[in-house]
Structures are given as structure tokens and as C-alpha cells.
Amino acid sequence: MRYLLILICVVFGGGELCAQPAVAFETKTYDLGEVGEKGGAVSRDFRFENTGDAPLVIIKAETACNCTKVRFSRKPVAPGRKGTVTVVYDPAKQDGSFLKAVKILTNTPEKQYIVTIRGNVVP
Fold it and tell me: Could you say which residues form the signal peptide (predicted)?
């Protein structure tokens, strides 16, 4: 089966049809610990590398509430290069413990990745 796939890739496009990006995050979760309610927004960078052999594109990133924002570059990340998704959390909009997820949509075969931040907002 593997040889058939390689043969198909070589015959149809010199292997270019089989080139795909791949994402390897350094970490997919951060524990922010205690966050002061009046201390202002806090942010964490989720660093990743394109471990594939085609350019990686982050299509969009989604959050579930207005207390969490996300920033990322829309420029393609070349194979072997690194990129960053920054998650910003505003503790003034919630108190107590929190767990916030960000869905990152990409052009990889897996299509989406989830990164999370968690912590506890204190007065």
C-alpha cells in the first residue's frame, strides 16, 4: 500500500501532490495560575513548527467567549519554520477558575487543533 502511494505521488506531479504541511506545537496548554482580576489582560504564546513539506496556513482561530482573543499571522509558514498563536485573556470579565479553548483551523490534513489556557481569577 505504501509503495502504491509513493508511485501515485511520483506519477502525478513529481511528488508535489503529496506535499503537506504539518503542525507540531511546543505545548497545547498553559496554566496561568492565579490571575489578578484588576491586573489587566494576560497573554501566552503557543509556538509551533511546520514539520511538513508544504507551506502551512492558519485559516482562522475561534474562541468561545469575549474574554479571550487570539492573534496570529496570516502569512504562510514555510516548512521547517516556526510561528506563534497568541491567546489573550481578560480576567476582568470573569471571576473564579477558568478553562478557555481556542480552535485553530489550518490547511493540514488534521484541519484543526485546540489549545487551552486555564487558571484562577482572584480579586
Answer: 1-24
Dihedral angle at the C-alpha atoms of 92, 36, 64, 110, nearest 10 degrees?
Answer: 150
pLDDT in tens, the chain (123 residues): 545 544 455 445 444 567 999 999 999 999 999 999 888 999 999 999 999 999 999 999 999 989 999 999 999 999 999 999 999 999 997 889 999 999 999 999 999 999 999 999 998
Residue 91 near residue 35, CB atoms below 8 Å: yes
Domains of the chain: residue spans and CATH: 20-122 (2.60.40.10)
